[in-house]
Design goal:
Layout: E1 6-12, E2 16-22, E3 34-40, E4 44-53, E5 59-70, H1 75-81, H2 86-103, H3 108-113, H4 115-131, E6 135-147, H5 149-203, H6 206-224
Antiparallel strand pairs: 1-2, 1-3, 4-5, 5-6
Helix pairs in contact: 2-4
Amino acid sequence: LVDAGHRAVIFDRFRGVQDVVVGEGTHFLIPWVQKPIIFDCRSRPRNIPVITGSKDLQNVNITLRILFRPVTAQLPRIFTSIGEDYDERVLPSITTEILKSVVARFDAGELITQRELVSRQVSEDLTERAATFGLILDDVSLTHLTFGKEFTEAVEMKQVAQQEAERARFIVEKAEQQKKAAVISAEGDSKAAELIANSLATAGDGLIELRKLEAAEDIAYQLSRSRNITYLPSGQSVL
């Protein structure tokens, strides 16, 4: 009996592995002489972690997720040349080979910014390589990509340096603005002094007397609002 999604290869004790692949359903075998080897032909997932190096010699940790299945017509060859555990023997080795080859073409920065291109290149190369072993890859994707501790620390230090540079640039710009404000204020004071000097030259002491009257008026107004000030009539003696 061959279940749904499975295929069987027949091993004959006298003639060896038969070229005919048995499909789903119930089939008759010669007892003791023939033996069925059942293969699951549905797509199955497998995660393969690989540690490799980038173009700029940075350590890269990559995990590749693969959906694979065997080519039904090639099951006898797969069983004869590789064995029932073909996925365990083939996929880790060819995945490591392809990943090392592809990742070595990119530096660390490109692996991040061009991740889609890297994934597509890995998928194309790995699909072609797996086909030589009678395997079909329905999907290949990069699920995990990290770098070594040294590279991560270097990126963090670069970010800190950029932030400090931005802060220093802000301080410089602030100082420039304060300098401009001080110059403008000084120019205003200079202009005001010039106007006052011109007024004194034109009106003489009249401007000074006017300012005295304005100051006296302001002082009298402030004193009139205070409770501690008492006004007494002039020319009288008050005990």
